[in-house]
Input
Amino acid sequence: MCGIRSSCVLFHVKFRIIIYQIFNNFMENKVNIIIDGKQYEAAKGKTVLDVARENGVYIPTLCYHARTGKAGKCRACLVEIEGVRGLKESCAMEVREGMVIKSNSEKITEVRKMIVELHLSNGEHNCIACEKNGHCELQDMAYHLGIERPHYAVESHTMELDCSSEGIIRDPNKCIQCGRCIKGCNHNVMHEVLDFGWRSGHMKVICDDDVPMGESTCVQCGECVQLCPVGALTFKNAKGKGPYWELKKDKVICTYCGVGCSVDVYTKDNKYIYSLGTEENWENQTNKGMLCVKGRFGFDFLNREDRLKTPLIRKNGKLEEATWDEAFDLVVTKLGDIKAKHGKGSIGFFTSARISNEENYAVMRFARGVIGTNNIDHCARL
Amino acid sequence: MTNSMQEADKSNVIFIIGTNTTWNHPVFGGMIKKAVKEKGVKLIVADPRSIGLAKLADIHIKQNPGSDTALLMGLQHIIIKNGWENKEFIKERTEGWDEYVKSLEFYTPEKVEELTGISKEQIFETAKLYATSGRGAIFYAMGITQHTHGVDNVMSCSNLQMILGNFGLEGTGVNPLRGQNNVQGACDMGGLPNVFTAYQPVINEDARKKFAEAWGKKLEDMDDKVGQTITGMVDNAGDSIKAVYIVGENPMMSDPDLHHAKEQFEKLDFIVVQDIFLTETAQVADVVLPAAAFAEKYGTFTNTERRVQFSNMALNPPKGVKHDHEIIAELAKRMGCNDFPDTVEALYAEIRKLSPSYAGISYERIKKGPGLRWPCPTEEHPGTPVLHSGKFSRGLGLLKAITYRPPAEYANAEYSMVLTTGRMLQHYHTGSMTRRSKVLDGIVSSGMIEINIEDAQKLNIVNGEKVKVSSRRGAIEITALVTNKIKKGIVFIPFHFAETAANVLTNNALDPVAKIPEYKVCACKVEKIS
Ligand code: SF4
Ligand code: FES
Output
């Protein structure tokens, strides 16, 4: 009697906990799903792909990009879902409570292989000197599937490169028509230049009414290059400057306008190579991963040979090279003399809207605390 | 900005005045476009030029340059006449109503039509759309401030927002778009003649005491008077000002009247310029100190929405070059100040200690993430994307009575056209960086003057022809870009190009309060060079 009672109680408690969990999940908009035999808690509204990625499960994608969203075009991301017929695009499939998913199976591998082989045989995907070598999403897929060369031989005609733009090279032979660049151009940066043109076998990405990029309304913000999964769109100024894996990446804040875009700059051997808008946590970044032509292409002044590299002092009317010691001494003596003769108010400081807060503070503290003047301003007004 | 850029799609209507956003703040320009095209946000553009955003505007009005106050106050006149104002907000959160309403009497639709060149009907439509669509945000830039009546313009904007209750909510506010990446930060850090960091006034003894203590100085050694502005220092060169120390600025290109600037600089006993290139200003210096560029240093920058962001050091500075703060610290030391902070960290620690709005923004919090918007008083505080919710910082918001003042310089028979200046998409400020960029210089390598087709025909000028442009102060030769994108009687020149420097022509008349020169309006004459 007692035993039955207690097991009843136990049952009740367990039952309550489960109900509580489901209720809780429901309230917090959480669901439980299983991928490849492992259980994961996931936020409602996320796609199977999102959850897989968050948990380090590899599912390849070509047409999907976090900043352009699901496209459901390339089928690279197919998965099996228990109780659902056929394979499903994980980039477009939202998670549901109790979903059981297989991210890898023979069937899936078959399809993926076919997709990659078709792409490989259809264009000119020669990786050796490609700018995208090492971070190409098609190459990645082929690598994971162990495809060295395509099986099919499809007759494809070689198209001309479009090098007409100052900053961007377009190689239509490498394009896999995922549409990411078009979405980015029309829905992220809103420049509305790119679109698909022509039909079937001749379909390609075009600028305006199919004019060369350099003659089109393109403003060269480079969003399309940043979104391209393969080497169809690349930066001219980065060509041959070093393969991806040799570059160092650092997050900086753009030095131009007050938007303050977050930029990942890629450098090698202490030289600036190119810029990407910060993808990490892009939704919360000021610029949501985007850049304008200045942030994209305007940083190469850093590499200029005509940068000032040594102090200069005016001697007999001409600026001549000097050592730091000489320069410091002269400044200290001159400022000291002028202060002694004409008072601290005879010295003025122009600080800068381009240097950091810390440096501005240093100039401010120097003017007010060391020289003792409030004559300090910057070109906010100019 | 009282609000943040990400809120563009939270507005019901956006009012753009005096900003060519898709050129000068391109990424934000895209966000506005998206809000309008994909989220159904209404758009009003007031600009004499057909700027990029004008194409998708519900209403594009082309006011005469220099007539913004009249336009803005005229809108308020109509709003109040029609009872579209937010009475509750006005009652609870503002003061100064009586005088303000009285000053509106001047701005009748007829008067405003005469001053702005916009028809009464269009002004009415604009007022109606803006006042009756729900939450409205105003965005402006130098087109509003670079006038002899710039402060009036700004006040007119905040009046408009106050009577509509457009404060303290997402998608509202008065939002100046700052032109340079750290203008906000330079102001926050006390790079102004009247305030220490976080806008603590130098004329306030408590503030002076606080800083004197922090810096180990005697109170009586602190300057207790407001200092001189840049324009003041240039004007007083040789008189009260004998030496200037210039960090990363190029006044010999950016000053409103370059001939005048050159003359004035010659009168100085000593000029130090600390910069990355031998700029026009460095060329006239007595000592030039080579400094590291952005990306060669780390530290914080504050964007136009008060977001304090951390920027990393991606490159080492070229050999022989020092960081700006190193140079300053070394000078301080040589001048006998032994405890001057000599690391970025030490400087930032002082900033946090002395500036309440930055106190909670530690490096740890912003190093990985997308930054924090001040005020952020404690390390637990989430930052403040929207200012003035519930209360203005001064308590009640002041509705300002505003008397109309025309631009300082009129067009007349000789100088019959109006020149306005600004930036281009591809270039930045005085061009010292962008003109050294291969791609940017490749796209646009020289300046040109935008002139209306009809004006060009009258002067017998064709597109691409070199013309002479002169004002009372100087003359330049420049290529003509004949276009219908600019209103008749007005010409536009970008100011990035030294060989066709717009600022040879512009007027250095100042706003009496803000001391901002009138770059946006001056009278000029365009002539054919035969
Ligand atoms: S990338 Fe363009 S929009 Fe962004 S901060 Fe730089 S200049 Fe401004
Ligand atoms: S990535 Fe899912 S269909 Fe292309």
Observations:
- Chain A has a mean pLDDT of 90.
- The longest helix of chain A spans residues 2-27.
- The first strand of chain A starts at residue 30 and ends at 35.
